[in-house]
Design goal:
It is a single chain. With 67 residues, the protein is mainly alpha-helical. It has helices at residues 2-17, 21-27, 44-51, and strands spanning 33-35, 41-43. Strands 1-2 form a two-stranded antiparallel ribbon.
Amino acid sequence: MNEEILSLYRAYNVAMAADDTTALDRLLAPDFTLTHMTGYVQPRAEWLGELQWGPCGTSPLLRITWR
């Protein structure tokens, strides 16, 4: 059982590093939520949708450049 958990943990990390939303969709529970350090609880579908924009879910339309 420990090996299975470790294997899933590794698969999750590989999928995160690659922004592989297909793999994450398979790995995450239907009721998964992501709690940000701000306290915002993000639903699974919203989070996976944002990841499709690119690394860390950053949409090119939402990037802010400070001068």
